């Protein structure tokens, strides 16, 4: 399975996550923007993801809820700032358990001979916010979501 690369430079407010998927860019874009497919790959396997809102347009809002097996829930939400199919999505991202800590996320999809390099650049309001997210296990969650997305894309391609 393709690995997920994380760049977390000391003293900066950003995290850059890169992964190559064995699927055309258009397929990856459609998969990550389809509210019916998001529960199949977003978040850890141990939870159920519910797409509460997803208005995929500049100014549109999104909200995803993660539900654990014991019934506990936590949610994330944001606002879309730019949608450029099949190249780029820009949105805010906020964990509702820590309101006020909003980051700006830019997802870029690059065609690489029929495969897709997805680069997600997250810019936090402060280095402390960034370090808090990394310390909370963000790398594990992003890697697992990437693995699940790769598995889903393999079924869509076939």
UniProtKB/TrEMBL annotation:
| Domain Activator of Hsp90 ATPase homologue 1/2-like C-terminal, chain residue ranges per copy | 22-153
Q: Which Pfam families match?
A: AHSA1
Sorted alphabetically, which Gene3D superfamilies does this protein's record hold?
3.30.530.20
Read off the SUPFAM superfamilies from this record: Bet v1-like
Q: InterPro entries, alphabetically? A: ASHA1/2-like_C, START-like_dom_sf
Give the UniProt family note: Belongs to the AHA1 family.
This chain belongs to which protein, by name? Answer: SRPBCC family protein
């Amino acid at each position: 399975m393709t690995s997920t690369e994380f760049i977390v430079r000391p003293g900066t407010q950003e995290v850059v996550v890169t992964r190559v998927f064995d699927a055309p860019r258009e397929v990856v874009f459609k998969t990550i923007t389809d509210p019916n497919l998001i529960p199949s790959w977003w978040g850890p396997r141990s939870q159920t993801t519910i797409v509460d809102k997803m208005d995929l347009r500049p100014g549109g809002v999104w909200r995803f809820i993660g539900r654990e097996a014991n019934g506990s829930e936590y949610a994330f939400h944001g606002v879309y700032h730019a949608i450029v199919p099949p190249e780029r999505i820009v949105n805010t991202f906020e964990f509702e358990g820590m309101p006020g800590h909003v980051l700006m996320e830019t997802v870029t999809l690059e065609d690489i001979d029929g495969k897709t390099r997805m680069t997600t650049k997250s810019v936090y309001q402060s280095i402390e916010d960034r370090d808090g997210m990394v310390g909370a296990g963000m790398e594990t969650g992003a890697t697992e979501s990437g693995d699940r997305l790769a598995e889903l894309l393999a079924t869509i391609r076939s």
